[in-house]
Specification:
Helix content: 10-25%
Radius of gyration: 27 Å
Structural class: mainly beta
Strand content: over 45%
Distance between the termini: 76 Å
Number of strands: 14
Number of helices: 3
Largest sheet: 4 strands, antiparallel
């Protein structure tokens, strides 16, 4: 331990560490890329704009080559982009092409660091994840029934459960209220849709959709209001 605080030993220590690193690289080969470099290359978002963030915490340059395909809702390739760069140590945000109509992208990348290389491929949605949220769609199946499709998105981490409530209300007759409930449970990064069927009634003028959730120990309430007269 005394050597670590004595600057005159730093050169010797660095030489010993480099010898150890070279020894690990020799014995592990490419499978040691992640463990030895801790380099990461993933898709991130700045508001709605996706970019490739490359994190290189080492003292050595990194060479990256990536082929990116932009896909529409049907999975068809509508555009392509190539990235080839030599990056110095640090964090680098690489711009991606903004493609009209693209809903997701596929990335095939090769990373080369010193004598090691690493290849990966992944598929990423171009709709950024915004944590716990709720949206709905209201459709009339026929003259007798209306269907509410309520989609909840899960948190970044932790357990989420609670109750989803649909309250149909009449502004014409305040005492006319119909309430429907469902138990809900959502995993992190999950999107789950729940359905309510409501008999069409001319007395109902609006509906309230309320989610009472326990998000990893935190109580939250999400509310959507629906005009049933339109």
């Amino acid at each position: 331990m005394a050597k670590l605080t004595d600057k005159k030993h730093h050169t010797t220590i660095n030489s010993e560490l480099n010898l150890k690193l070279n020894d690990y690289k020799k014995h592990l080969g490419d499978i040691g890329f992640n463990a030895l470099s801790d380099i990461d290359s993933s898709i991130y978002f700045n508001k709605n704009d996706a970019f490739l963030r490359v994190y290189n915490p080492t003292d050595f340059e990194l060479k990256i080559s990536a082929n990116i395909q932009f896909l529409d809702t049907k999975g068809n390739v509508i555009a392509k982009q190539k990235i080839s760069n030599v990056l110095k140590p640090g964090t680098h945000n690489l711009d991606l092409t903004k493609v009209q109509g693209a809903k997701s992208l596929k990335v095939e990348q090769k990373l080369q660091w010193q004598s090691l290389s690493y290849q990966s491929h992944f598929h990423e949605s171009l709709t950024p994840f915004n944590g716990v949220g709720m949206k709905y769609k209201y459709t009339k199946n026929n003259e007798k029934t209306g269907v509410f499709s309520v989609t909840l998105t899960g948190p970044y981490s932790g357990k989420t459960d609670g109750t989803l409530t649909l309250s149909a209300i009449s502004d014409l007759k305040p005492l006319v209220i119909k309430e429907l409930k469902q138990k809900v449970k959502i995993e992190p990064y999950e999107s789950r849709t729940y359905h309510f069927e409501l008999a069409n009634n001319s007395e109902f003028t609006r509906a309230n959709i309320t989610a009472y959730l326990d998000v990893d120990g935190e109580k939250i309430r999400l509310v959507k209001n629906v005009n049933l007269t339109k």
